[in-house]
Design brief:
Number of strands: 12
Radius of gyration: 19 Å
Oligomer: single chain
Order of helices and strands: HEHEHEHEEEHEEEEHHEE
Largest sheet: 5 strands, mixed
Distance between the termini: 37 Å
Strand order of the largest sheet: 1-4-10-11-12
Number of helices: 7
Strand content: 25-35%
Shape: globular
Length: 228
């Protein structure tokens, strides 16, 4: 069982980045907003090619057992609020700055959420009761900008989980802040579609009583600032 102090360190609000450039994207976002369910992946489906890698002196049998145990887990990745300021997060996880970050209140689910630990090299683990979750929440320093927290569930049969309630949505509108916005929309189908999706999203959020906020690009410091 996790220590109380570990659970208390988990923020009550976490953030999920999503692209929003077509009808399929919008339908998935609408599902999340309406029911708070998120798709959870196996570790082999995540974007880090070194996901789940570790150093060990375990026997081949123990390594096989650890691998099978890792495959029993499903993972949903979130970030803390500081990740909203990171340019790379919006670039990588919102289809090139055409997306949103969904704020989720995870207060009722902290027992299943763990903070990712970052280290310079792959850590060494041994066969033990707790090593699988430690492996699945340890990444190398290159990923520190993600400021990641992971919802972990030892139930590979269920792809979607009710993780929390959506309390706010942030939009990244960097390309649409320019004075030649109309020209940009006219010449970029993806940005035009994104603009339409944001309009539909705003209507949905108004119906649900959820605030739509934004992040604004700070050109001097090459980061985003949160607009309250």
């Amino acid at each position: 069982m996790r220590k109380v102090k570990d659970v208390d360190k988990i923020p009550s609000k976490l953030y999920k980045f999503r692209r929003l450039v077509n009808a399929k994207d919008f339908c998935r976002v609408r599902e999340i907003i309406e029911d708070g369910e998120f798709y959870c992946s196996k570790f082999t489906e995540l974007n880090d090619p070194m996901e789940g890698v570790y150093n060990t002196t375990c026997t081949e049998k123990e390594v096989t057992e650890i691998y099978r145990a890792k495959m029993e887990y499903r993972i949903c990745s979130f970030s803390n609020i500081d990740a909203l300021k990171e340019v790379l997060m919006w670039g990588h996880y919102t289809g090139g700055f055409k997306g949103i970050a969904i704020e989720v209140d995870v207060s009722s689910n902290k027992e299943n959420i763990k903070e990712v630990t970052y280290c310079k090299n792959f850590k060494e683990f041994y066969s033990s009761e707790d090593c699988v979750e430690q492996i699945l929440t340890t990444k190398v320093d290159e990923w520190k900008y993600e400021k990641e927290y992971r919802f972990l569930k030892n139930d590979c049969a269920k792809e979607k989980e009710k993780i929390g309630e959506v309390t706010r949505v942030f939009v990244c509108d960097i390309a649409l802040e320019f004075r030649n916005r109309d020209m940009i929309l006219e010449n970029s189908k993806s940005l035009s579609d994104f603009s339409v999706c944001i309009e539909m999203l705003n209507k949905l959020l108004l119906e649900k009583g959820i605030t739509l906020s934004s992040v604004k690009y700070d050109y001097e410091n090459n980061r985003f600032e949160i607009c309250e």
